[in-house]
Amino acid sequence: MHKHVRIVGILHIVYSCLGLLIGLLVLVFLAGLGLAIDQMPDTENFQVSVSSILGVIGFFVALLLTLFSLPGIIGGIGLLKYREWARILIIIVGFFDLLHIPLGTALGVYTIWVLFNSETVSLFGQPPAAPPVSSPQ
User: Fold this and answer.
1) pTM
2) 67 or 134, which is more confident?
């Protein structure tokens, strides 16, 4: 199960980074669209510029996607280090991923299968291995 735990950790990091990238693309797209619309001659009479409205919308979408992506990145890194808190966090994230059809659903099912496995639970229940003690010669 060591391999499956590592795969789940890496998949959550990649999937969450994809969410961050989509948030950034939405922000850039909406801000650019707003600037392009502001350059049109018919928009001179607006009290509030379209670029500011679309920029604010893009900022909030990017902020939401960032807030939803950070637990997956943090938990994925912790999972690679076999931290018990990361296992619990990724289980919660995995349940929320079930709602993101189709990729999130597949990731959520795989996450739940791996992290609820009795062998995986025992991996996280063990104390970290102590370094070997060398005897003085």
Assistant:
1) 0.80
2) 67
Residue 37: the pLDDT is 76
Q: How far apart are CA 92 and CA 75, in angstroms?
A: 10
Roughly how many angstroms between the first and final C-alpha of the chain, as a whole number? 39
Token pair belonging to 24 = 């950034």
Domain boundaries, the chain: 2-37+50-118
Flag the least confident range among 21-35, 57-71, 77-91.
21-35
**How many angstroms separate the Cα of 64 from the Cα of each of 19, 50, 69, 93?**
10, 21, 9, 15
Would you give the distance in Å from CA 114 to the centre of its chain? 18
